From TrEMBL:
The gene is rsgA. Pfam families: RsgA_GTPase, RsgA_N. Residues 72-222 form the EngC GTPase domain. The lineage of its organism: Bacteria, Bacillati, Bacillota, Bacilli, Lactobacillales. GTP binds at residues 112-115, 167-175. It comes from the Bacteria. This is Small ribosomal subunit biogenesis GTPase RsgA. Monomer. Associates with 30S ribosomal subunit, binds 16S rRNA. The keyword Zinc applies. Belongs to the TRAFAC class YlqF/YawG GTPase family. RsgA subfamily. Its cofactor is Zn(2+). It comes from Lactiplantibacillus nangangensis. Zn(2+) binds at residues 248, 253, 255, 261.
Length: 298
């Protein structure tokens, strides 16, 4: 028996990487009955008499599980964010960041399309990037799109991680992936369409090695409309609020109507970004109004 990682899945076959090579395997017959679908990214135990005829015996517990793309154990997401005025919104960025925080996936923000900005607009985006770095997020922003600096920064961020590239339709996900892996030849502007054809579309999903990391070759995207959390938990997914809230007077303070709230004090002092607080309030209301049922997974 060997242990390895599924690097590609295609029509019932799973290519498992172990000891420097790939083994083509299938899932055991009883997996389907038990409702187990191996995913790319899974760590598995398998038997393989030859490199062409292996069987997956067991899927080891997953750290994370994404639906789009269907990849397990992703621990990092490159959030491709188009910076042009028409496309950029802090609200969308914050929604993506909260969704990733909830999923337990570390975000890295990649500011795309900076070449389309005026110097003034670029300076404003740099300021914004600074604010997000203060919060604790890594932000990659370069004046020239896809120059050596920007790509080197992305590669360095990927090291040691299983990553996925995400972002809005048209943000530049495929373009970034193509730059990271020349030869990948993802059709730009077509990925979302392909994904939208329906959940039954069987797409090949692979993890590709880039520098010292692994990246899903299929970008992910989502509307990030609802978070699977209760409104009073939302504060846990704003890292700057987490740090401040130890000084809120009330335990469990949600920083809205409570007196002596450290988050509101920081907001008044200008150390918390107004747009972050506004987005927090909006998400809070959305979660409340949708009466999202809190179903804790563990
Ligand atoms: N000028 C400029 N154009 C870019 C940049 N990144 C992407 N684009 C263009 O923006 C359009 C959309 O880029 P894609 O890479 O297809 O975007 P995507 O996020 O993969 O989009 P979907 O597949 O629809 O989800 C394409 O026409 C790209 O050429 C950039 O950094 N600068
Ligand atoms: Zn508070």
């Amino acid at each position: 028996m060997k242990t390895g990682q599924i690097r590609q899945s295609l029509s019932g076959f799973y290519d498992v990487y172990a000891d420097g090579q790939l083994y083509r395997t299938r899932a055991r017959g009883n997996f389907r009955k038990r409702g187990i679908t191996p995913l790319v990214g899974d760590q598995v135990e398998f038997d393989a008499p030859t490199q062409q005829e292996g069987y997956i015996l067991k899927v080891l517990p997953r750290k994370t599980e994404l639906v789009r793309p269907p990849v397990a154990n992703v621990d990092l997401a490159i959030v491709v964010t188009a910076t042009t005025t028409q496309e950029f919104s802090t609200n969308l960025l914050d929604r993506q960041l909260v969704a990733l925080e909830v999923a337990g996936i570390q975000p890295v923000i990649y500011m795309a399309k900076t070449d389309l900005l005026s110097d003034e607009e670029f300076a404003a985006r740099q300021q914004l990037a600074n604010d997000y770095e203060q919060i604790g997020y890594q932000v990659i922003i370069e004046r020239a799109a896809f120059d050596a600096h920007a790509l080197a920064a992305v590669k360095a961020a990927l090291a040691g991680h299983v990553a996925v590239v995400m972002g809005q339709t048209g943000a530049g996900k495929s373009t970034l992936l193509n730059h990271l892996q020349p030869g990948l030849d993802l059709a730009t502007g077509e990925i979302s369409q392909a994904l939208n054809r329906g959940k039954h579309t069987t797409r090949k999903v692979s993890l590709i090695e880039i520098a010292d990391g692994l990246v899903a070759d299929t970008p992910g995207f989502s509307s990030y409309e609802v978070f699977d959390i209760a409104a009073n938990e939302l504060t846990h997914f704003f890292p700057e609020f987490v740090r401040l809230s130890v000084d809120c007077k009330y335990r469990g303070c949600v920083h809205i109507n409570e007196p002596k709230c450290a988050v509101k004090a920081a907001l008044a002092a200008g150390t918390v970004r107004q747009s972050r607080y506004d987005d927090y309030l909006q998400f809070y209301e959305t979660i409340k109004n949708k009466k999202v049922i809190y179903n804790k997974k563990k």
